[in-house]
Fold each of these.
Amino acid sequence: MPKPIRIIAGLGNPEEKYERTLHNAGFWFVDALARKYGGSYRYEKKFDADFCRINLHGEDVWLVKPQSYMNLSGQPIRAVMDYYRLRPAELLVAHDEIDLPPGTVRLKAGGGHGGHNGLRDIIRHCGADFLRLRLGVGHPGEKHKVTNYVLKRGSGDVEAAVERNIDDAIDMMPDLVDGDVNAAMKKLHTKDQTVD
């Protein structure tokens, strides 16, 4: 039986210049959760992360934004998990996904990193047995353009599609907090609204 989600980590880069870049879609998601559920972030040195607790569907859930930069996200997440004695199966990681078009969001259990350096580092520190919320941001078409693409703002249509995906993902969070991954996937995967 799947474990209920108790820690949600959003991936992104901490500097203000990256705040609205596509690579920070994971931060956008946990920020939206904090707004909806009255969470207030504070920096925790022992985790090297911005951190807050929310009450979601009657359960305490910890939101984490590593401040170590995307490619070094694993250690801050591991530190929170160790401190609260949480297992990888209780972790949801929200991140940008270039292999999905804007307007598509997917929930995935386990697996590899798919070339995402933030996921690579989390797998190195925590193992691969965690849920991923893959927020589609699209692909620039050529591999050598990916870094520049994700480290800038998306078009208005792309940003709006990602924000809609975030709203849809927030709607399925009570199912994840209850440990019902199948119900969450069903809700989420039937709401795609891709942008051409």
Note: Strands lie at 7-10, 42-44, 49-56, 59-66, 91-97, 105-109, 131-136.
Amino acid sequence: MIESSYVVIHSHVSEFPEPMTLRTGDGVLVGERYDGPEGWPDWYFCTAPAQEPGFVPAQLLDRHVDGSAKMLEDFTNRELDVVEGQVLQGNRQLNGWLWAVRISDGATGWVPLDKVRLQD
């Protein structure tokens, strides 16, 4: 994957301090599609055994008619807390979010794309 540098233009603090960590093949129950004002498409509220519930992108779910699904790849919905001016390395975008590494300390997580801009 190609990594790009981003600068944080608006701070972000996670509202979900206990992220889900799922492995390829793990089963989840799929709930409602996220429909918030931010316009983040195709995130579904999921539950899994021994995990706090959370949102998972649709393209990582092999969905079944009974409302269950299997994970198509490893995934965590850990969000990265960031403050304006921080520099990040990002290598994946999904449904309005960027998977990033904070350069200052190596912490990783998802950041909303509207909170960052590609660095020149």
Note: The mean pLDDT is 95.
Amino acid sequence: MPLAFESVTHGQVAFGFFNIDTDMLLLEHYFLFAPEFCQYIRELARSPEPEAFSAQWEVYDIPDRERIGDLMGAIHGIRFTGFIGRVYQRFPFPKIPEAFKQQPEGYKNRDIVEEIIREYAVEVQIPFVAQNGRGHVQIGEYEFQRPWFFELVRYVWLGGYPRWRDGLRPEYVMKMKQEIMGSRSGFFNGIVLDEL
């Protein structure tokens, strides 16, 4: 489930997985698949000089909240609106609480989710800027202090809430951690990617 994270520009913003059977993440009205998120983080980790690291992220954008849908209504099976509603019609919330775990095989449903989101979103490029000296990270219109950006990365590492099923992480998540831990840039100093 998406959680609230503190941004510099917009106060608390929602970020995270929104369905356990997909590997798509949301950041408010931006949507992208977790393998791409991890690849973007790996690129930052490989950067030799992140004082002014910048890149463009390709994301899906659904600026109209009605077209995003009602996450809680979809989870409870009572209101299937917008993009999220369509995803939950295809991949319903589990009936037993023990099954509520992020599925490491979510990538297998990517084609289905892409077909759905293309009906609701436009593909756009957004700026990603990491400023080591200032300690801020910009993702599109949202800016985060470094510790809160680390929490976004940690969320994906852990499998969000409710965590990866059986503690099994997809390979793209493991590669992200490996690049972060081996980074010489100093940007990721202080990040904690453990099992808590």
Note: The longest strand covers residues 122-131.
